[in-house]
C-alpha cells in the first residue's frame, strides 16, 4: 500500500509546530487496515499504520486548528470467533486545538476499545484525541 505525506502549498512562514501521533490500542479482535488524517481540512496522512506512529509534523500559523482522523479496522476473530473476520469497522474522531508561537502542540490520537466483554463489537472501537 502506498504511504503518502501530503505537503500543503506554501503561503506564509509558519512560526508554530504541531506533531501528530497515532496509537493503536485496539485489542487483538481488530486488525488495523488504514488511517486517514486531516489537519485543517487537508489530508496530511493516508495509508496503513503510520511509520513510527507519526501522522504529521507540520509548521503552522499560531492560532486555532483542527484535526480529524478516520481509522478502518477488520475483524480478527480467529478460531471460535471466526465470524468476526468478515466484519469491517470505521471509527472517526477529532477536535480543535490552539497552537502558540514557538511552542509545539503534541496531538495524540488513540484508537481503543471501550466497554467490557459483554459490549457489542460494533460499538467498542472509539478514537480519542488529546493535545499536550
What does this structure look like?
- By secondary structure, this protein is mainly β.
- The protein has a single domain, classed as Immunoglobulin-like, CATH 2.60.40.
- Helices cover 0% and strands 58% of the residues.
- It is built from no helices and nine strands.
- The strands form two sheets. It has a five-stranded antiparallel sheet, with no helix packed on it. It has a four-stranded mixed sheet with strand order 5-2-8-9, with no helix packed on it.
- β3 and β4 form a beta hairpin.
- The two termini are 31 Å apart.
- The model has no long low-confidence stretch (mean pLDDT 86).
Keywords for this entry:
mainly beta; elongated; five-stranded antiparallel sheet; Immunoglobulin-like; 132 residues
Itemize the secondary structure elements and their pairings:
Elements (H helix, E strand, L loop, with lengths): L3 E2 L10 E10 L4 E10 L2 E6 L6 E7 L2 E13 L12 E12 L5 E9 L11 E7 L1
Parallel strand pairs: 2-8
Antiparallel strand pairs: 1-4, 2-5, 3-4, 3-6, 6-7, 8-9
Amino acid at each position: 500500500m502506498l504511504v503518502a505525506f501530503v505537503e500543503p502549498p506554501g503561503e506564509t512562514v509558519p512560526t508554530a509546530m504541531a506533531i501528530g501521533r497515532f496509537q493503536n490500542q485496539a485489542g487483538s479482535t481488530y486488525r488495523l487496515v488504514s488511517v486517514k488524517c486531516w489537519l485543517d481540512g487537508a489530508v496530511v496522512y493516508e495509508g496503513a499504520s503510520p511509520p513510527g506512529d507519526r501522522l504529521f509534523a507540520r509548521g503552522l500559523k499560531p492560532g486555532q486548528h483542527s484535526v480529524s482522523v478516520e481509522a478502518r479496522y477488520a475483524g480478527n476473530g480467529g478460531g471460535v470467533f471466526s465470524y468476526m473476520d468478515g466484519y469491517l469497522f470505521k471509527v472517526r474522531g477529532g477536535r480543535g486545538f490552539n497552537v502558540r508561537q514557538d511552542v509545539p502542540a503534541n496531538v495524540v490520537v488513540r484508537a481503543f476499545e471501550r466497554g467490557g466483554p459483554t459490549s457489542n463489537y460494533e460499538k467498542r472501537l472509539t478514537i480519542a484525541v488529546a493535545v499536550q
